[in-house]
Amino acid sequence: ILMPLLLSVYEFLGTIMVAKLFMRMFLTKRKVRESYAGTNQGVIVSMAICNLHALAEGARLTLLYVDGVENPSPSILIPIVSGVLWNILLRIGFMDRFLH
After folding, report:
1. pLDDT tens digit string along 28-39?
2. pTM as predicted
């Protein structure tokens, strides 16, 4: 039952860390901002968040598969439903709104 929560916390904290580092290293330094003015540095943040999400999703699915093979029961639906809800929240922009 704690597995989806732990992976979601890992993903959430990692996303916050990426956003904070980006803001501190890029947005708050005028010289750096001016050097990259013609580029879209937001893509780097998006790639880092997608990478964190892929790592957490891969771990989640691997653990679900192992648990489902070892203990077949309907309780496997809890992490699946929480994973689906997390994915929906990410895709509707919950993290973007929360971080800004």
Report:
1. 777 777 777 777
2. 0.57
